[in-house]
Write a structure and sequence with these properties.
heterodimer, A: 321 residues, mainly alpha, two-stranded antiparallel ribbon, two-stranded antiparallel sheet, B: 364 residues, ABC transporter involved in vitamin B12 uptake, BtuC, transmembrane helix (chain B)
Chain lengths: 321, 364
Amino acid sequence: MDFLTILQVLDSSVRLATPLLLACLAGLFSERAGVIDIGLEGKMLVAAFFSAAIAYMSGSVWVGLLAGIASSVALALIHGLASITFRGNQLISGVAINFLAAGVTVLVAQHWFEQGGRTPSLTGDGRFESVTLPLAETLRNVPVLGPIYYELISGQFLLVYIAVLVVPLTWWVLYRTRFGLRLRAVGENPAAVDTAGISVTRLRYMAVIICGVLCGLAGAYLATALQAGFVKDMTAGRGFIALAALIFAKWKPWPAMWTCLLFGVLQAVALRYQNIEIGNFVIPVQFMDALPYILTVVILAGLVGRAIPPLAGGEPYTKER
Amino acid sequence: MRTLPHWADVVLIPLISLLLAGLLSALVVLAIGENPWAAFKLMVEGSLMRSAGWGYTLYYATNFIFTGLAVAIAFHARLFNIGGEGQAIVAGLGVALVCLYIPWPHWSIALVGATVAAGLFGALWAFIPAYLQAERGSHIVITTIMFNFIAAALLNYVLVNLLRPTGAMDPASGPFPDATNLPTFQAMFSTAETPLFRGAPANVTFFLALLACVLVWLLIWRTKLGYEIRSFGQSETAANYAGIHPKRTIVIAMLISGALAGLMSINTTMGEAERLVLNSVEGAGFIGIAVALMGRNHPFGVLLAALLFGFLYQGGAELALWTDIPRELIVVIQALVIMFTGALDNMVRMPLESLFAMMRRGNT
């Protein structure tokens, strides 16, 4: 395996890690505020469909992106309604949202486009183009650093750069702002936040909406950048891999980025090589597919470090009377 | 304080939730430009008016009874087993191995063997998440989700690399020997003059599912173990003081749950496909969640809810066949049922509670 091949695998790893990272950070906001969200998958899926569908109809990927975010936020609000206002079971609500998304996307896609649950292919302004960073061509021939800059850093989609920027932003919001402090507090001890005279309901809704926006970006990325259009069930379990990454990263933004990159590498390698042969031993592609999940179970088992979720996660908050 | 009479809790709330889900589904059908009433009539005709339709409805219901019971029994211990899908996938492997490699003389003995295998393999797949929950506190929902994906990858590997007959293209095992083929309803109930259940996949496993309902009822309400599971689910601390071993209860409840989910693979693998195929579970593990919620975790409720979903599945297939409404309509209905009976329970309950409180004040 030469240097250029490694760069190409890394390049596709970054592309594949981006939706995971956005969804993972989405989950981070929600779960840090004490609202468990296993509906990341569903929110990504509606965003993927509506971004592609509206981008196709309007001819503008930006309008599509907004539509994708709006649809994802709508589902997030349903989750908020069920788990915050009506104090329902957050896990069950998440399951319902995943099914709702899986069903509605195909129903609407079939009604609008009649192509068996997909959108027409996006072209031109209906799709995100990759961004060539300045000097990429000129620096291309510089040894080692040139190809890294040209192949890996330049030439990604805009949303990839945005996703990378969201990581420090999330860190800053969580650990350096008053809102972030309160958000973390509401996930650990909502009663204390309530006692301080701050609305638990409002904070949790904010977290859930931020989660919806980020899932919207992740879904739109899938359908308008990574691929040109929506196909049925195109998220293919990415929402659950993001959930796994969130646990693996112990609900922290920087580790979330590294974990998603790692899972991205696994996906890229599985995509490129199918079965990997090391000497006489063959690693089957299915093992690579299952590896993120296996790693997460290992982490959950506490064999390597211990994953401690936010204390109030999954518990609806009932105000004392 | 109990504000609702028992009958309202078990009958009225599920019915109102179902009505709301149905109403919203009708709106969805209207929104995609179809007539909801015509669609409903078509579903009823296709699934309940002909014996062949019933043959499909009962076939689907068989799957949902098993997965619904699986989710329900875990719910009794306040555990959310979202891994029925994975447990059924792995159990399918168990059924296939037993059918392919043991020379059974008669289907009835093969059925016993397959039941044991399906139960064991399903329970095995539930064991690791259960053990991790009991011993290390790893959240059972997350681990069972992960195990669903791991199970899918495992089955894919086994089918493609090990069980697939040489030369065959599609990832499936070879056909099971004839002696293991279960009698279908068509073979059991048709006479020369009146053919019934023609071509439908419903088979003898349905009766196994009915038996499972009775056994689960006995287990939950008539045995010491069932009492332990229920008390643990009501209050872990109280159960602990009463001398109920929490770790043991978690593991046992999950083993039973996994075994029940596994049993559905007898119906799909041995009863219908008569070989092991890649996607035999087809989301039935998740429908178990809707069925258990709808059926209020009671075996009889699960049976009714499973029949309802069997009807929806067969009706949905008919719709996809005769109209422009895709099969995914059923997924939407399923989502709405889960939403209303599970997560938005309080939305229905709160107004109802104030209504009953008002009536009570009016009476006194």
